[in-house]
């Protein structure tokens, strides 16, 4: 009986040691994504998963579906489970502050990807140089319009990455005779088409539309066709469907191409380095490039 008890105790100890070793080798990380209905976020999610495999991270992915309340619940659940780190693309850069403050109090490091979080303690932010990408789009607009014309833009209020893209575009055309005559929200392809139709009807002399994402670019392109407008479209993201849209539509003249896969893998590398006590930078900008067709 004594030998049996001793054997049981040793087995429990070994199992505990194995579990602890596994936990140490495989830190648990929560990732909360804005959506998975957008090609960019599908690619980002895949990049995170591949990066997690490379870094030996146990990654738990949740999708907010552009619902702030759901994202808050998902993050608070991660905090309750005392995960090792949180990776997040916020639905609302300001609205996510509450749960991220709870993560800070729980000593859980937070890394933002693609979209920043305002007034929150963040270990690192991995994203496309959104402002720089907006400047690239603006320069293409200046070239296309020879420095003169009317522009409308699609936006996503409350999303810092989108605001940075639009601001970069504005700054790139600031010293020209290009005027931005309207800005309307376009969170989905359908909403972008409707918003663009509204803007084109109100501003029939529109020469160019700047759309902050592939779906928005495609929606704007559909609006141009429906309205038989002379306007051309510049987009952002450059996922396969976006690249195809540039190749196949004369009125879609270019897209600023992001590297979502590199972004996801970089985020997982930053998480691994931070958890292993290595120094990490506060920002890791992923440089975008302009695609204007085959």
UniProtKB/TrEMBL annotation:
<dbReference type="GO" id="GO:0030313">
    <property type="term" value="C:cell envelope"/>
</dbReference>
<dbReference type="Pfam" id="PF13407">
    <property type="entry name" value="Peripla_BP_4"/>
</dbReference>
<dbReference type="GO" id="GO:0030246">
    <property type="term" value="F:carbohydrate binding"/>
</dbReference>
<keyword id="KW-0732">Signal</keyword>
<protein>
    <submittedName>
        <fullName>Monosaccharide ABC transporter substrate-binding protein, CUT2 family</fullName>
    </submittedName>
</protein>
<dbReference type="InterPro" id="IPR025997">
    <property type="entry name" value="SBP_2_dom"/>
</dbReference>
<feature type="signal peptide">
    <location>
        <begin position="1"/>
        <end position="23"/>
    </location>
</feature>
<dbReference type="InterPro" id="IPR028082">
    <property type="entry name" value="Peripla_BP_I"/>
</dbReference>
<comment type="similarity">
    <text>Belongs to the bacterial solute-binding protein 2 family.</text>
</comment>
<dbReference type="GO" id="GO:0055085">
    <property type="term" value="P:transmembrane transport"/>
</dbReference>
<feature type="domain" description="Periplasmic binding protein">
    <location>
        <begin position="35"/>
        <end position="279"/>
    </location>
</feature>
């Amino acid at each position: 009986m004594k030998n049996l008890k001793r054997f049981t105790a040793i087995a429990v100890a070994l199992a505990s040691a194995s579990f602890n070793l596994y936990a140490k080798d495989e830190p648990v990380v929560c990732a909360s994504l804005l959506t998975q209905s957008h090609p960019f976020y599908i690619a980002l999610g895949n990049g995170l998963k591949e990066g997690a495999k490379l870094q030996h991270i146990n990654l738990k992915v949740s999708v907010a579906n552009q619902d702030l309340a759901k994202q808050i619940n998902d993050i608070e659940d991660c905090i309750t489970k005392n995960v090792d780190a949180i990776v997040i693309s916020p639905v609302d850069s300001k609205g996510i502050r509450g749960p991220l403050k709870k993560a800070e109090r729980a000593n859980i490091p937070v890394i933002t990807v693609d979209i920043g979080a305002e007034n929150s303690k963040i270990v690192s932010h991995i994203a496309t140089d959104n402002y720089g990408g907006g400047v690239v789009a603006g320069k293409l607009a200046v070239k296309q319009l020879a420095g003169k014309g009317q522009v409308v833009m699609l936006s996503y209020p409350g999303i810092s990455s989108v605001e940075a893209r639009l601001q970069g575009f504005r700054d790139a055309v600031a010293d020209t005779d290009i005027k931005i005559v309207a800005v309307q929200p376009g969170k989905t392809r359908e909403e972008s088409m409707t918003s663009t139709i509204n803007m084109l009807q109100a501003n029939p002399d529109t020469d160019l539309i700047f759309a902050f994402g592939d779906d928005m670019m495609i929606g704007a392109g559909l609006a141009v066709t429906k309205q038989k407008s002379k306007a051309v479209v510049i987009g952002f993201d450059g996922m396969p469907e976006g690249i195809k849209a540039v190749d196949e539509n004369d009125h879609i003249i270019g897209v600023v191409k992001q590297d979502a896969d590199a972004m996801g893998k970089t985020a997982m590398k930053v998480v691994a380095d931070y958890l292993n006590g290595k120094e990490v930078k506060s920002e890791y900008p992923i440089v975008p490039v302009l695609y204007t067709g085959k």
